[in-house]
Design a protein that fits this description.
The complex is a heterodimer of chains A (291) and B (225).
Chain A: E1 2-9, H1 18-28, E2 36-42, E3 50-56, H2 63-70, E4 73-77, E5 80-85, H3 89-99, E6 103-109, E7 112-118, H4 121-127, E8 137-143, E9 165-172, H5 175-184, H6 194-207, H7 212-222, E10 225-232, E11 236-241, E12 250-253, E13 257-261, E14 277-279, E15 287-290
Antiparallel strand pairs in A: 1-8, 1-13, 2-7, 2-8, 3-5, 3-6, 4-5, 9-10, 10-11, 11-15, 12-13, 12-14
Chain B: E1 2-5, H1 11-19, E2 26-30, E3 47-51, E4 63-69, E5 83-88, E6 104-107, E7 120-126, E8 140-145, E9 161-164, E10 175-178, H2 182-195, E11 206-210
Parallel strand pairs in B: 1-2, 2-3, 3-4, 4-5, 5-6, 6-7, 7-8, 8-9
Antiparallel strand pairs in B: 9-11, 10-11
Classes of the chains: A alpha+beta (291), B alpha/beta (225).
Chain lengths: 291, 225
């Protein structure tokens, strides 16, 4: 088991409540996965810069010193930090890797920020101040590990490309063979996790020009196993389930938002949920919503 | 009517309170908000109304009560039901009535994949459609579908019988369509009367049963394996 939640806002009036609503949804899924949790928040940078969600391998990192070194604005978030910079991302990531090898890049993009760690949704949302966050889209995951170790790096969401966020309930069974194919294409992996393979496959397809729906269709053809996936980009939000629909998914749609969760319990507290159209995506249907 | 609210009580407290009620009691469960395992394992003859959308395993393992849900339900409604009834005024998610031994489960909307999987003698009536792999390995009992059935209906069926009023996407291994008998029509009439799903025409349903070719190993077909 794992728990997934996602909230894609259509009504800008709800943007101030995004973090609160998404945190409540994720906390409601705690008993589907007590090992680790993570949450992604999409909010445009006011100055149109690139944002980098960074995590230090050891506590006590001097983030302001790193910000000065890289010419980036620093916002400390719990033990992590988000750096904002106008530098070209390829150049920035290269300087970061050479100047600060102790730092791992959790995500980057013009809107996406990702926070994840070992611990419950309540702990992760509290520590990273998610409850008070505004934004237009959020994706969350709470993990019961099956395929690989319980570490921060193995936690979801996975974000292998700018503004791409990928969470998974289930387990891919052929991920080592797909991984070998991707490695032959020059793709480098951070962990031995099955979900990372799916995330990097989608990132590769999209880098080659596929849209999100096509990339998920390619994933369905290549990857075997159980999955309910929630995948988002800067302006899209997509859900897909394996051919046997082994893992649950419920979607609620209103003029104000599209919300998805593993179970209806996580949706029950959303505004005007009683007026929402609630449905379960059928196996192999690719549902994509665009802002 | 007594009211038990999920906003105030834990699931175990609700189920213990239900279990303590004398036969003939009526009780309302308020604000279920997708809560799992409501009204499970009850053996008294009471009327339980769940006033909203419920989670997984509603009425599972029950032997006696009549349960009504004013909303939709999650996975496994009436799982392993022994006797009594469950009526859902909405849709049901996957595995509705899984391995139910007895009782009647009536779904006014659609039911999802694997409806009646491993059914062991219970009766499931769905006004709408059912998803793929319904009646998988169903051993005994009856499933009546007022709408359509998904892929692989009745795969590896044993003695359970499935009636479908609408279209069947495909039949599973060893499931076959058989001619309706007078007894089938009577049975469907009784189920329509019991549920009020009168859009179903008893004379026009399709009867699906086991071809029983998987019951014994056939040495002549050994090359297939």
């Amino acid at each position: 088991m794992c728990g997934i939640i996602g909230l894609h806002l259509r009504d800008a009036a709800l943007e101030d409540q995004l973090g609160h609503l998404a945190s409540e949804m994720l906390v409601a899924m705690t008993d589907r996965g007590p090992d680790s949790s993570g949450i992604a928040v999409y909010e445009d940078d006011a100055l149109g810069r690139w944002k980098y969600s960074l995590r230090a391998k050891a506590p006590g990192r001097d983030w302001s010193q790193l910000g000065q070194l890289l010419g980036a604005e620093v916002r400390e978030v719990g033990t992590d930090a988000v750096l904002a910079s106008s530098t070209d991302p390829a150049e920035f990531l290269k300087s970061l890797a050479s100047e600060a090898p102790d730092i791992s890049v959790v995500s980057w993009g013009s809107a996406l920020e990702v926070f994840k760690d070992v611990g419950t949704p309540q702990e992760i949302c509290d520590r990273h101040g998610i409850w008070a966050r505004s934004g237009y889209q959020a994706i969350g995951h709470t993990r019961m590990a099956t395929e690989s170790a319980v570490t921060t790096g193995h936690s979801h969401p996975f974000s292998p490309a700018a503004d791409l966020c990928f969470v998974h309930n289930g387990s891919f069974s052929n991920y080592f063979s797909v991984r070998r194919d991707l490695e032959a294409e020059g793709i480098v992996f951070d962990t031995d996790n099955d979900t990372e393979v799916g995330a990097r496959l989608v990132a590769l397809e999209m880098a080659r020009g596929a849209d999100l729906g096509d990339a998920l269709s390619a994933l369905m053809k290549k990857m075997d196993g159980f999955y309910t996936l929630l995948v988002s980009t800067k302006d899209q939000f997509a859900v897909v389930r394996d051919p046997f629909a082994c893992k649950p998914a419920v979607v609620a749609e209103t003029p104000q938002y599209v919300a998805m969760a593993s179970e209806y319990r996580a949706l029950a507290g959303l505004p005007e949920i009683e007026k929402a159209e609630v449905f379960e995506p059928m196996p192999q249907e690719i549902h994509v919503w665009t802002r | 009517m007594d009211t038990l609210s999920c906003a105030e009580l834990a699931t175990r407290e609700i189920n213990q309170a239900l279990r303590a009620l004398p036969d003939g009691s009526e009780v309302l469960i308020a604000e279920p908000r997708g809560r799992h395992s409501l009204a499970v394992g009850l053996t008294n003859r009471i009327d339980v109304t769940i006033d909203g959308n419920a989670g997984y395993y509603v009425g599972g393992l029950c032997d006696g009560p009549n349960i009504t849900v004013n909303g939709f339900v999650g996975w496994g409604v009436g799982e392993n039901l022994m006797s009594g009834s469950i009526r859902v005024h909405g849709n049901a998610s996957e595995s509705a009535g899984a391995s139910a031994h007895g009782g009647l489960i009536a779904i006014e909307g659609d039911a999802s994949l694997r409806t009646g999987i491993s059914l062991k003698g219970g009766t499931i009536v769905v006004a709408g459609s059912v998803g793929s792999m319904s009646a998988f390995m169903a051993q005994a009992g009856t499933i009546l579908v007022g709408g359509d059935a998904g892929e692989a209906l009745g795969d590896s069926l044993y003695e359970a019988i499935v009636y479908v009023a609408g279209d069947i996407r495909s039949l599973g291994s060893d499931a076959r369509r058989e001619d309706l008998t007078a007894a089938d029509i009577l049975k469907v009439k009784e189920l329509v009367a019991a549920t009020g799903f009168d859009h179903i025409e008893p004379e026009n349903v399709k009867r699906i049963a086991s071809a029983k070719e998987l019951y014994n190993f056939d040495a002549v077909k050994a090359h297939k394996y």
